[in-house]
Amino acid sequence: MEATIDKEIALQELNRPYEVSQEAVNFYRKNGYVKLKQVLSPAVLDYYGDIITDLVFRLNTLIKPMEERTTYERAFLQIMNLWLEDERAKEFVFSKRLAKIATDLMGVQGVRIYHDQALYKEPSGGITPWHADQFYWPLASPNTVTVWIPLQATPMEMGPLAFAEGSQCVEIGRDVEISDESEKILADELQKLNFNVHDTPFELGEVSYHAGWTFHRAGPNVSDRPRKVMTMIYMDKDQTVMQPRNQFQVADHAKWLNNVAIGSQPQDDLNPVLFSY
């Protein structure tokens, strides 16, 4: 579908403040996630969705047949730091509107970008196993949050994101990488501890924010269309880089933080501040 919005109007929307209600802030801090409706217009999602989709299919290197892929590879095509690849993608990733929401939910003075990633679950794509993102990040503070932006309405058959409410407060599973094992271990543990799992469709324009230690998963895409999602990971602008605790954090320290000194703050070249009071 042809985008029907002028670029300047799209940019204005991306940078216009969205007022987060106190109710939404309270919900996020209690449950570790929140879903917000009508954050972005269909026209903006269409305009930038076309740009992001073109980049995903141009940069994607995962071309194995689905039956030959690992569980993680079946979950989605994953393309990261699109903002460094395309100026128009950078406009979307650097949205002050989206960054301010992250700032307000966490109750901090501002946020930096950690990195962005497009997550495209192909038709017949499998589950995204239970996991917590911050397992992968050498960041000292839990003040981290990911915005999950579906580029289309996302009914249950496309595999919307599901959240274990309040799971950001427990220590279980914090040493488990995303895998078939994490799906089984965490599903069992979360059930034993009676965590409510919120698993509902996303309307067009609805987005979610989830904390770094909130456990989440997604079902398979059994529709005939790709589930196109763009995400940005934000951290408190005063975040501190800590000594990596596993091989993934070692890799993240090099790739997303440019190996900055342990105990220091991320640098502005790779992790610029996107919103600050």
Structural overview:
The structure is a single chain. The protein is α+β, with helices and mostly antiparallel strands and 277 residues long. The protein is built from eight helices and eleven strands. The mean pLDDT is 91. The strands form two sheets. Strands 1, 2, 3, 5, 8, 10 and 11 form a seven-stranded antiparallel sheet that branches. The longest helix has 18 residues, at 42-59. It has a single domain (7-276), classed as Jelly Rolls (Sandwich), CATH 2.60.120.
Radius of gyration: 18 Å
- As a percent range, the share of helical residues equals 25-40%
Poorly predicted segments: none
Which term fits the overall shape? globular
Structural class: alpha+beta
Strand content: 15-25%
Q: What brief labels describe this structure?
A:
11 strands, 277 residues, alpha+beta, Phytyl_CoA_dOase-like, oxidoreductase, globular, single chain, iron ion binding, 2-oxoglutarate-dependent dioxygenase activity, seven-stranded antiparallel β-sheet, 22% strand, 30% helix, 8 helices, dioxygenase, Jelly Rolls
